[in-house]
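step=predict obj=SGNH/GDSL hydrolase family protein n=256
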Amino acid sequence: MSTALGAVVLATLGVTGLAHAAGTVYAALGDSYSSGVGAGSYGSSGSCYRSSKAYPQLWANAHSGTSFTFLACSGAKTGDVINQANSIPSSATLVTVTVGGNDAGFSDVITTCTLGSDSDCVNRVDTAKTYVNNTLPALLTNTYNAIKAKAPGARLVVLSYPRFYTVPGSCWVGLSDTKRTAINSGADALASVIQSRAGSAGATFVDVRPSFVGHNICSSAGDYLHSLTWPVIESYHPTVAGQSGGYYAPLQAAIG
């Protein structure tokens, strides 16, 4: 049977394996949690800090035939991700994204909680949560819609951020449990809104928080997240193990 005739017969029978055999056209969008800040091996990606050990690259490596476009960049906000969407291949069949943390002022929250009092930290987290609940939803919706408009045939997968701390945990120095609890509550508020907006956009939501349990800061293992570290930009970001076990593993479980 000729290749052309075989393709016609398979199509007539409704066999769809050819699309799978051709490989996935995958674009990874988002901020530092998708670019892989904290995992090292940034190559020539400059200030975007795209790591060869980040979960998008791990997924592409594990799926033979994948055509991979790595667009995630450290510091990205929703507006930046909308700009990233302009570079998605029109033939994309899979898009992943993490976004929202920078819009909500993640860096300033961590700075305030590190340098300020317990009440300073709680108040700053509460301000961030107000933003997350009242302003961020529309920004996320606009972002997801922009991605879908650019790649209407792609499956959109939206991933959350982890909780950062085990409370009470094994840490005897550093932030108080009050601060750690406040920071975790901010991550939970962000995950709730991201899940809601992703669902409304018809996207697949992947909650990474369960994957980090037992591996976050002040846990018995504590190997998935950096605490305060050098270089400072890697602080509170996934380690190599965090990208693999905390992000790649639940993504793979969700979409194969």
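step=describe
DSSP finds eleven helices and five strands in the chain.
step=end
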